[in-house]
Specification:
This protein has 282 residues and is of the alpha/beta class. The chain is built from nine helices and eight strands. The protein is globular, with a radius of gyration of 20 Å.
């Protein structure tokens, strides 16, 4: 009797799993279909780079976070297109149609952005790096100061200063601090994009950046209750550059829930102040 009950339970679980996966596959296919025709690709020395352009005005390079692509970048910053900015939004290495080069680094990713800008005939940009996009955004500002007008970091996934820890829960901590757990999750989740694999490895590497070399103005925004600890990171980055400012909301978490519109207004105000400063000095 017990074996029969176990068999029934197992059968139900299998059927449920198949049903859930079928729904997932359907939704994934629908989501991918929505992206068709909304982006272009360009060949770089690192492989194919996908990108989208929207809006008119001053150029702004949008660098999306983990588990996204150009679509995530547009979803999170499209309001800036309505404020007079032309958004250039690439998919980072391994996401959507952007290929993954051998032995990728965030420095290589930053150099790929330069090649994209050269392709588009754009000299200087404001860079907005979101979450895991902060790594390559900072590399862009460090390696190509002549191309970076200003740097904005939203909930920046940078390396923590000495003596602090990541507060993302047991799973996130394990992913960042344990190569074995990260490897296991990647093997058990074959649908995970290569870009996510790259982001996990980057987070685990803890490579120090020469943040103090960032010469352009920097605005770092986060929320105090972000369990990924990005408030600490935002404060650290802002304090480490010659011209930095941190805005930390008391609540909102990693998605800045309830404060995202405020964050976009702060970005617009920050850039308007820089423009006014430039006009006064010219």
């Amino acid at each position: 009797m017990t074996r029969r009950i176990l068999f029934v339970i197992l059968a139900v679980l299998i059927v449920a799993s198949v049903g859930v996966y079928a729904i997932f596959a359907h939704d994934l296919a629908a989501a991918r279909a929505c992206l068709v025709g909304h982006s272009q690709t360009v060949g770089t020395s690192f492989g194919t780079l996908e990108y989208a352009v929207t809006g008119e005005g001053a150029p702004m390079l949008i660098v999306h976070g983990a588990e996204g692509g150009f679509d995530q970048g547009i979803d999170m910053t499209s309001a800036m297109a309505g404020r007079g900015y032309r958004l250039i939004v690439p998919s980072r290495f391994g996401y959507l149609r952007s290929t993954m080069p051998g032995n990728p680094t965030t420095a290589m990713q930053a150099d790929a952005y330069v090649q994209l800008l050269d392709h588009l005939g754009i000299d200087k940009v404001v860079v907005v790096g979101i979450s895991a996009g902060a790594w390559s955004s900072m590399q862009f500002a460090i390696r190509h100061p002549d191309r970076c007008r200003a740097l904005v970091l939203l909930v920046p996934a940078n390396y923590l200063p000495a003596g602090t820890n990541i507060h993302g829960g047991a799973v996130v901590s394990a992913m960042v601090h344990s190569n074995f757990v990260a490897w296991t999750l990647l093997k058990l989740m074959p649908i995970m994009p290569g870009g996510m694999n790259f982001d996990i490895k980057t987070a685990a590497t803890h490579e120090p950046y020469s943040i103090e070399k960032i010469a352009c103005p920097v605005l770092a925004i986060s929320a105090e209750d972000d369990r990924f600890g990005t408030a600490t990171r935002a404060k650290y980055i802002a304090a480490s550059v010659p011209d930095g400012r941190a805005i930390i909301f008391p609540t909102g978490g990693h998605a800045l829930v309830g404060h995202y519109a405020d964050a976009l207004r702060e970005i617009a105000s920050f850039l308007q102040t820089l423009q006014a400063r430039h006009l006064r000095s010219s």
